[in-house]
């Protein structure tokens, strides 16, 4: 399919253009995972675990959520 034909389909909004993409290889820019290690005192780990359990997420998820929230506040 030529680019201008694709653009027409997209612009009309009536046809699903996703069938023309290989989504198995798609990735979001700047969303690659990178492992980091952070050492916390035991009381911090205990507090994180209590809050994570209270809201029903893992400790790792809580740390990620709070970190992203803080970064967005700083950038906002």
List the helices and strands and how they pair.
Blueprint: H1 3-12, H2 42-55, H3 59-75
Your description of this structure?
The radius of gyration is 21 Å and the shape is elongated. The chain is mainly α. The chain has helices at 3-12, 42-55, 59-75.
Question: How would you concisely characterize the structure shown here?
Answer:
With 76 residues, the protein is mainly alpha-helical. The protein has three helices and no strands.
**Biggest sheet: strands, sense, closure?**
none
Uncertain runs: none
Strands, total number: 0
Helix content: 40-55%
Form type: elongated
Rg from C-alpha positions? Answer: 21 Å
Please give the alpha-carbon distance between the first and last residues: 41 Å
**For the residues shown, what is the average pLDDT?**
90
Q: What would you call the structural class?
A: mainly alpha
* N-to-C series of helices and strands: HHH
Number of domains: 1
Share of β-strand residues:
under 5%
> What is the overall number of helices?
3
Key words describing this protein structure:
mainly alpha, elongated, 76 residues
